[in-house]
Amino acid sequence: MPYFDQFMEQFPHMEVETQKFTRSILILKKYKKKEFLAKAGDVQTAIPYICQGLVRRYYINEKGNTITTSFTSEQGYATDYPSFLNQRPTKYYMECLEPTIVVEMPYEKLQEAYRKFKDSEMYGRLIAEMVLTRETDRVESFLFENAEQRYLNFLETHKHILNRISLSHLASYLGIERQSLSRIRSNLAKK
């Protein structure tokens, strides 16, 4: 399957036996626009790798507002990693913003791979590092950047999805009101 090949391309030096086992545990899933990979209260029992499509992760705050925390597109992992790692309920919703195809690795099978194949631990660590770096970058953007800097950084790092998301979702992701985003965009256009 081409999607399994796409997933496996991340690990070019994986041992042959590990490759065979990994391929055998992968699950292909297809989602329609507005379908959910997970909802608050679900336990993330598999980690989805996005082959095609776009997923928005968000939560609903105490005022009932949806707050976007991430966008994951092709070659990324749409996850609440602590939910996956600790097999506990997530607080997030993961909604497909467009038709999405994912390759999933079930938690139990991944643990089996760790027990059976030494090199699988290294690849698991690489996935964890990728997810952790993305999450840390997001937190640091709120600590060290103003709204305009966050927007410019988003343009630089997520240019490929800019036309695939709504301005409302983008404003929520940046931690600002939509009117503020419009003002930032207008001011930048004048420069």
UniProtKB/TrEMBL annotation:
Describe the location of the Cyclic nucleotide-binding domain by residue ranges.
29-115
Entry's InterPro entries?
A: cNMP-bd_dom (IPR000595), cNMP-bd_dom_sf (IPR018490), RmlC-like_jellyroll (IPR014710)
Q: Which Gene3D superfamilies match?
A: Jelly Rolls
List the SUPFAM superfamilies hit by this protein, alphabetically.
Answer: cAMP-binding domain-like
Name used for this protein in its record: Cyclic nucleotide-binding domain-containing protein
Organism per entry: Flagellimonas olearia
